[in-house]
Design goal:
It contains twelve helices and twelve strands. The protein is an alpha/beta fold and 368 residues long. Helix 1 packs across helix 11. The structure holds 3-isopropylmalic acid and magnesium ion.
């Protein structure tokens, strides 16, 4: 029996409720496949601000680094919303741990569960066959570039104005593009062998460098993989007109943030989308959705994205492919049997098939 150390970061809002279901499923699948999990909980986000005055206490990063994998739920909430740069924000916890663990690759798989195909706002024939992997660069770009806010000197602005000014910088270094491009090509080789690289090379210098490096690596080391470039604005459009044509999509941090929400919505619910953030050591797994403060504590949140994040953990950190397949099969079976949480229920769902967070977790466990 192998024991894996997992750093548990429930965070805010629905976080504690859904992460409990993730652990329940991990324990059940572990018992079946000969692994056990030892959890160490730590604080991140708004609750960490309340308790420690910072969204990412040193202790949390230390626990994460000492673990075999990190399972995170969600951070943030209206209580901590602020535009004051002097006040800590929950998101700093997330950005801090991504940087602290150097998690430069964010994988967000977008697949349609056929039982939920009606949930999409797009026509069934458009989303039919959608199976794409968003590979988002996660530790560079405008998220981590130089930024500043200041006052123009008296009379220095246009027309003698002296308002505030602010800037953010989108900067990429060659090695950052190099390593994420490799991740995308490697992922494509295990899938349908196609990479779409998204940039804004008609305007941005960082995108022109991006495109050059992606092509150089492709031509030298991955000529067998099909590569296409697409401008980010056009990509936003293509994602809802021909989503099934995409296999692996690779892009910089902020474009990936925006496009992955759009891609998630193809499935009809952000509540189904898992993600893995990988670097060269401890990886982190989290649902792509937020902390949903409006439904926190009500026991109605959808735990499936969290559970599917556990599936990714088994796949990428522990190489437990059969166990991971089992989780996916169980989730599919539960959905096929008609069970829904409120977010994925529709008018046709009978009331007795709409279940809460804990029951949904139990159903997945029963189907393992
Ligand atoms: C995400 C989220 C985060 C991001 C926020 C919460 C900082 O939107 O993981 O996509 O922008 O990366
Ligand atoms: Mg986002």
């Amino acid at each position: 029996m192998t024991t894996y150390k997992i750093c548990l970061l429930p965070g805010d809002g629905i976080g504690p409720e859904i992460i409990a279901e993730g652990c329940k499923v991990l324990d059940a699948v572990g018992a079946k496949y000969g692994a056990s999990f030892e959890y160490t909980e730590a604080a991140i986000g708004g609750c960490a601000i309340d308790e420690f005055g910072t969204a990412l206490p040193d202790e949390t990063l230390a626990v994460a680094k000492a673990s075999d994998a990190v399972l995170l739920a969600a951070v943030g909430g209206p209580k901590w919303d602020t535009t004051d740069p002097e006040r800590p924000r929950p998101e700093q916890g997330l950005l801090g741990i991504r940087k602290g663990l150097e998690l430069y690759t964010n994988l967000r798989p977008v697949q349609i569960f056929s039982a939920l195909s009606e949930a999409s706002t797009l026509k069934p024939e458009v989303i039919d066959g959608v199976d794409l992997m968003m590979v988002r660069e996660l530790t560079g770009g405008v998220y981590f570039g130089m930024r500043e806010r200041f006052y123009d000197e008296e009379g220095a602005g246009p027309n003698g104005s002296n308002g505030q000014r602010a800037y953010d910088t989108m900067e990429y270094r060659e090695y950052e593009i190099d390593r994420i491009a490799r991740q995308a090509f490697e992922a494509a080789r295990k899938r349908r062998n196609k990479v779409t690289s998204v940039d804004k090379a008609n305007v941005l210098e960082s995108s022109r460098l991006w495109r050059e490096i992606v092509h150089a690596i492709h031509d030298k080391e991955y000529p067998d993989v099909e590569l296409e470039d697409i401008l980010v604005d056009n990509c936003a459009m293509q994602l809802i007109t021909r989503p099934a044509d995409f296999d692996v999509m690779v892009t910089e941090n902020m474009f990936g943030d925006i496009l992955s929400d759009e891609a998630a919505q193809l499935t009809g619910s952000l509540g189904m989308l898992a993600s893995a953030s990988l670097g060269d050591s401890t990886a982190l797994y989290e649902p792509s959705h937020g902390s949903a403060p409006d439904i926190a504590g009500k026991g109605i949140a959808n735990p499936l994205a969290q559970i599917l994040s556990c599936e990714m953990m088994l796949r990428y950190s522990f190489d437990m492919q059969d166990a991971a397949d089992d989780i996916r099969r169980a989730v599919t079976a539960v959905l096929d049997a008609g069970w829904r949480t409120g977010d994925i229920a529709d008018a046709a769902t009978p009331a007795d098939k709409v279940v809460g967070t804990v029951r949904m977790g139990d159903l997945v466990v029963e189907n393992l």
